[in-house]
Amino acid sequence: MITTPDIVRPAPELIAGLARIGSATATGELTHLGIRDAQIRGPVAWTPGKSVVGPALTLQFMPKREDLYGQDEYADPERQLHRHVLYHTQPGDIVVVDARGDMGSGVFGEMMLTYFKGRGGAGVVIDGCIRDSAKAKELGLGLWLRGVTPNFHTQTNIFPFAVNVPVACGNTLVMPGDIIIADDDGIVVVPIKLAPQLLESGSKHAEWEEFSRLRLAAGGDLRKYYPLSPEARAEYEAWRASQ
Predict the structure, then answer these.
(1) CATH number assigned to the domain with residue range 12-191, chosen from the 4 options 3.50.30.40, 3.90.1230.10, 3.30.1240.10, 3.40.50.2300
(2) Which of 86, 104, 170, 233 could cross-link to 156 by cystine, CB 3.0-4.6 Å?
(3) Which residues pair with 98 in a beta bridge?
(4) Residue 233: in which H helix or E strand, if any?
(5) pLDDT tens, 160-172?
(6) Which range among 27-31, 116-120, 207-211 shows the weakest confidence by mean pLDDT?
(7) What is the pTM of this model?
């Protein structure tokens, strides 16, 4: 019997707070917290307008080696580790897959993603491909992918190797349980120990940007309102107090 570790999930209020920030603010604020570049490059948004925030379940693929993954794997589906990462799904989880940028293997298809959605999964980030893409888009999940393929997950050069271990998705380190913020701008990895600090600083940033946006939309001076000048900051504090 195969057993794989679960992740430790953050408090729901932390996730809800970070959901109001967005990837652009998150990566900017993380630079002030010591994380120079938190973006996962490679996968792009395949479900425009979708935004998800949640803890990472991780799946690692490796180059196929026949003595470790043979043709008989399909005789016993429970030996396929890409199924096991989905077994851990709780509402709001995001599956992050290091599929080595492989463009010939579909990590998940419609049925696997339907199961993930039914368990409350929020989205998938894959440095690689899925199959059954038209049906997958209808599920309402957030999808960040390199592409799509008709091939199944081990048809070509890779095979699922480990679940809920550190992975390099798009050459960015993701630890199991890290918080993922993904939207149309891209995907940001939030180290779990920095998440409370990011929530505090990111919320402040989002708040003063909302004030600046209102003033700029009304014809305000860019030099005054972005970033906030000392004069504008006093105006912002008054606006904030009135909200």
Answers:
(1) 3.50.30.40
(2) 104
(3) 60
(4) helix 230-242
(5) 999 999 999 999 9
(6) 207-211
(7) 0.91
